[in-house]
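tool_call: predict_structure(chain=1)
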Amino acid sequence: MWRRNSLSLSSKLASPNSNPSLLLLLRSSPKSHHHGLLARSNSTSPESTSAADPVSWAQSGTGVPYFGPRPSASDFPSLAAAAAVRAKEVADLAKHYGRCYWELSKARLSMLVVATSGTGYILGSGSSIDYLGLCCTCAGTMMVAASANSLNQVFEVKNDAKMNRTKRRPLPSGRITIPHAVTWASSMGVAGTALLACKANMLAAGLAASNLGLYAFVYTPLKQIHPVNTWVGAVVGAIPPLLGWAAASGQISLNGMILPAALYFWQIPHFMALAYLCRKDYADGGFRMFSLADASGQRTALVALRNCLYLLPLGYLAYDWGITSGWFCAESTLLALAISCTAGSFYHNRTTHNARRMFHASLLYLPIFMGGLLVHRLSDSEQSATVDYRDQVNDLSSSSETIVGLTENAIPRKNRRPALVGTQAQSPVAYASVAPFPFLPAPSYVSS
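tool_result:
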């Protein structure tokens, strides 16, 4: 009887529908004569087992029952090797997509855009700089720039495949699909604009969104239609510093136009040199650049030289508007003269060597110009003091003219002495207006 009950209990335990709580109860009993529970492996029904091995049993110790084959010590090296291979595959995949995203975003160009936006933010901050706001503005600008550059490559994938300079990019080379790139670009654009709207202001977010649309949907298709695309691209490059200024000050003012103007005029010789150096690539890709309709390169060099000369008065304007000290006026003038000399050399002798010199000079000009703006910028208190000083100069000039006029009228004409040349003291701004920039009108406070 006892034997028959034990067999019945054993059959219930071996049944797949047995109660788990009963199994645990039996295993946890120290007086139990069972040496462990038996676990089935790779089978769901008793009918599927073979006669030789109806149930795969594995002796287990006390605690929670282990269902399945227990790995032996010899299996651990193979498991570790499989885990290492899997980890390497994940790392390679992350590296692959990270590299693709880096190239789609044109990361170095995007970082230059971020530098101009950050400089504009500092210039518009006045005396105190909100560093958290600066970081958020730079991060949002980076995302929007990455989105614009990625969309540019999505639209130009067929053209890039025809050019030696761009055929190894992620899309022409097939390293990433177009839907994947569009998803990446869209997510970056939305995230960057939202970050600027939340952490800066709606004006900065609006400038970022409009610049993204202008670059991706106007400048990019225009490159295959008309050479005016270079000037539209210059407008695109001039907006990021204005974005930074708006993010810091919440408005767009005349003082904030110095750096955008420098970016606009600087991009023309920069792009003209690049278009001259890559004429064959642009022709193969189907892009209508200005240099392709200029076989001799004379008009290309002239446009570059003209825009280099437009950079000359920017240092004077930055000083005259109270943004920087007088030192920046001199430094900016020398810098503009240097890049103008390379443009003049390219105009006089249109060779690849001279075009490359002008291109390298343009690469040096922008960081030095922005660095000078940051080093010599005036705080709010210093700008106010400068404005007060100029108001006093205006008042003094007007009163001096009145006194001189009364004195001259009081002295008989025959007793008047001729004025000595050079005895009248003039401010540095007067010399700057008369000597290097004769095309600029003299300020109202400079006596004639």
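agent: Confidence is low (pLDDT under 50) at residues 1-10, 12-62, 396-404, 410-448. Proceeding to next step.
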